[in-house]
Task: structure prediction
Amino acid sequence: MPDRGIHSPLECSDTFLDAAMDRLELAPAMRQLLRGPYREVMVELPLVRDDGELRVYSGYRVQHDNARGPFKGGLRFHPSVDMDHFRALAAVMTWKTAVADIPFGGAKGGIDCDPHELTKAELETLTKRFTEKMDEVIGPNRDIPAPDVGTGAPQMAWIFDAYAVRHGYEPGVVTGKPIQLGGSLGRTEATGRGVSMVTAWACEEEGLELEGASVAIQGFGNVGSHAARFLAGLGARVVAVSDVHGGLYREEGLDVDALFEARARDRDQPIAEAGAPGEPLANDELLTLDVDILIPAAIEGVLHGGNAGEVRAAMVVEAANLPSTCEAHALLVGRHVTVIPDIVANAGGVIVSYLEWVQNRERMRWDVERVNGDLERILGRAWREVSSRAREEGVDYRLAAYDLAVSRVREAIELRGF
Ligand code: GLU
Result:
């Protein structure tokens, strides 16, 4: 985990929320409702490893708010997760689905395991035990998990299978499934595609020419690698990328396709050793490169009080969730760096999750053109609403996005009554 400074992800998501609630002058009880989770579940997950050793993991699900629709959000498998971590990320999902104006609330969960250290069979067992123990709180009309850090289509397939034991065929219980099991075309690349769309719209709004603009991307997982490819396709010069092992830099632009293919062949190979031309670069150097656009696309808290003052990019596009601490946000905005917040920048993923869920309800498969067209329409509307609010109210994009999201959730709570 990176140095988070003095602000944890939960303190930061609360700080961002407080700023919006102050502006909206909400009463104390409404503030309490909007801040705290609806439900938190923790389960014990004993697993006999293939070598006979017994290990006990913890499984979590935090359901933040469901006033606008079923809880929705990813599952993260990472050794350092805990309840507070998921409290922050679940709230972020509530605001993200509200900004996108799709009929979901927010949730997040996962298991405190290191998926790289488990075999496929062990991971399957662990994921299925988790699903059995969460059976009462998940479901296609209740709470719909999806991939996040450390999970992907295989885990979603196992959840779908374990849930079917009691409930029969219910593909809408998870999104991000393999295509063969009712997954949507376009879902895998949706977050990265959405990041590139929002980056292009934000550049237009801010008068920055995307064609030829230099871009540095921190994190080359599913989100970062697809964003790199789409942005290169729009004519941007992706000069630096990195993974946990380190980064690669090339002034004239990296061979993004070669790096993308190398990652598809072997996810665990360090990106700097993929054979693409470029010079090695340390991870923290990437964040302060002299580039036009910086895209943190990995985990939370990478931009913090200790380094945000040195960011030289004109624009930061948050492809990860909560990649800037509240301290970093204040420093960046204070230095007139344009920050495109996570709840808009990376909403493409959950938007195509919504399209997958609709297809599952209809027992239909749409072609990829329809999926991508709907993604562009829904995300485009969200961007226009956020950017016009920012312009009209004279506030930064994060505050505008939170303002919009909090107003929508509050309205739904009040309409439903108590
Ligand atoms: N994990 C992704 C996110 O943070 C996707 C969630 C989903 O599709 O439900 O937005």
Observations:
- Residues 368-393 form the longest helix (26 residues).
- Residues 72-74, 96, 146, 148, 175, 321, 346, 349-350, 353 surround glutamic acid (CB under 6 Å).
- The chain has a mean pLDDT of 96.
